[in-house]
Amino acid sequence: MSMTVLRAGLLSCIQDRGRGGHAADGIGRSGPLDEVAARLANALAGNAADAAVLEISLHGPSLRFDGAATVALTGGLVDGRLDGRPFASWRPVAIGAGSVLDLGTVRHGARAYLAIAGGIAVDPVLGSRATDLHAGLGPFGGRALLAGDRLASGPAQPLRLDRRWSLDPQPWLDPASGEPIALIGGRHLDALTPAARTALWSTRWRISASSDRVGFRLDGATLALREPIEAVSEPVAPGTLQLPPGGRPIALMAEHPTTGGYPRIGQIAAVDLPRLAQLRPGDAFSFEEIDVDTAQARYLWRERRLAALIAAIGERLR
Prior knowledge:
Blueprint: E1 2-7, E2 11-15, H1 35-44, E3 53-57, E4 62-65, E5 69-82, E6 85-86, E7 92-95, E8 100-116, H2 139-142, E9 150-152, E10 181-185, H3 194-202, E11 205-207, E12 215-219, E13 234-235, E14 240-242, E15 250-252, E16 259-260, E17 264-268, H4 273-277, E18 284-285, E19 287-290, H5 292-317
Parallel strand pairs: 10-19
Antiparallel strand pairs: 1-4, 1-9, 2-3, 3-8, 4-8, 5-6, 5-7, 5-8, 10-17, 11-12, 11-18, 12-15, 13-16, 14-15, 14-17
Helix pairs in contact: 1-5
């Protein structure tokens, strides 16, 4: 089965679980910004967890299906239409040959994930089908989709579909909850002035319009160091909170560089990165200080819930 891109959307790109094992060569992992939504989309389409999906940012594409397919859309809630009729997300949906799926504005959240049964079949680059837009690696030369692109899907197993059933997105998508983002203090936290440390925890930070898949720039307070730091470039990870000379923090995201020389004032807990990924430019949030043990406990609790849910979805589809 293949699809033709009629309209590309604002920023639509192919992602799998990421390009691991190449950090020593300066090549980052990439992968989906909201990896939980991507995993659930694959589960609903009957795919393995590492199947390639389409990540959609803020406004989606229009796709013509040249053959019958089963798809699932998760993440942010999208104004979608299938052949002019409302399209349901957070459930598997059968699509007939010749149908057009038009995905419009992501109206709740920032990113959605479209999985096709069988996965999107593109050649891996360095062992992964993930697109790294900043490095220009991955499908289509590492770029976002353009009108006229064609996407194929791999072999798919028959699924047992129930039109009356869908997942409740609330436990996995709640960008308007107002809950703080968990932050572990970084090695340079103590280098902040007392006023800056207070501001880090008390400020309502906003996602800057200049944010991208490399990092989310945060607008709010300007943080200052007690004295300049001559930092050595060190390994960084998704969620590392860096402080560049201008004093406005940057939260590194999926396409982050493998090393960085800015002071590292914190590390966003991995369990909260999907929530951060669903914030739109202008959305506000605050940080909550937690320790490593608490962050790990929250992550493991989430993973147990997610594994149980994915297993239950698999049973329902068989």
